[in-house]
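As promised in the previous annual report, we have extended the structural survey to additional targets. Below is the entry for Sugar phosphate phosphatase.
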Amino acid sequence: SFAYVTIKDRLPQILTRVIDTLHRHKNEFFEEHGEKGVEAEKRAISFLSKLRNELQTDKPVTPLEDELPDAALWNQYLDYQRNLSNGNGEPSWFQSPWLYVECYMYRRIHSALAQNPPIDNFDVFKEGKAQNFFESQEAVTALCTYFQELLKNIKDLDEKQLQGELFKLLQVALWGNKCDLSFSAGEESSQKSSPLQSLEDLIPYVLVNDMEKLWSLLINAKKRTTDKSIVRVDIILDNAGFELVTDLVLSDFLLSSKLADEIHFHGKSFPWYVSDTTKHDFNWTIKQLQSANHMWMSRCGINWEGNLKKGVWVYHDHMFWTLPYEYSSMAKVAPDLYADLQKSNLLLFKGDLNYRKLTGDRKWEYTVPFYQVLNKFHPAPLCSLRTLKSDTQVGLKPGQGEQIQASEPEWMISGKYGIVQFDAAV
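The corresponding structure token record, generated without further manual editing, is:
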């Protein structure tokens, strides 16, 4: 299975890269913290080397030994996994649910640093995230330019045009880093048209397309609002870099078109799954745009900083997003977060890991309804924007999955296909 390949090959590679990153920063740690920094780096590396060995030799999963606020919840979850194994011994790296051990690895990486001050706040994935952002400059420039041009006459758009622009930016946010190549077509005129041209070509690869449902939800919510009520959209973020910029542009569009009054962003409270967005990444991206020597990029950055200051954009990083639980457990494990999400008119879940947690990461029949696999997780109407990079997918038409499978055995893990999949929560 793809899970097996991930645990056998991908996770050890990621750990090796993390160890290598710490090695390369040794001098920086010494300059900042003296011998203490170097000692901390050595301890963290030894902790991570041990972790890599445990993983590769299928050792039992061990309880967390740090004092971080979520440690007790993780250890409870391990007990839960032990009870599931029906007395078949301890859960181990190759004999446990993929979602659990993968999340557990990232939590252990966090632990390796958190337990070793003064380097406890070092983000081992920061360089990769920054590199993705800088390598996508042309795409970011094109997107910001397109959006700022759109803003000039957004007030004059009729409903049909507004819907067209929403669909465009939803697809840009869906394809995230897949769209960057098509945006970077260079010249002024082709940048404006290239997002549209490439999006047209990508439509056949959107396997579930519920954009019409999103539109009617938003436009009806807007028509129903009174002076006292507001339309709130929550975005549960995925990757930093180019994808985050697409999410921010979509959010600005929702505000500027008055389809939403408030956007709440949910990121990770510590570095997670290599490129997931943390608060630092979120603020760093806006600062980078602000200081860009490109008029429309810096305009975006300045406006977005303004949205945060005005409180119409709010960033949250609840502990629950970096726990191994599927989302159907949220009401029980994190009732405060569940209650907060219930205030939203629409929840947009970005990316693959969110989809795995929404569906419980099970091997469902392709045609099982999305509503059913959410397993009573319905705090508010929600939508998954995801390109397929793991082998779980529901809500397809009869025969749709089998048909693709016949010609493309890797279709579920290639990132070539995407979904905009909606659940009304009623």
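Strands lie at 206-209, 232-236, 262-266, 313-316, 346-350, 382-387, 418-423. The chain is about 55% helix and 10% strand. These points will be discussed at the next consortium meeting with the crystallography subgroup.
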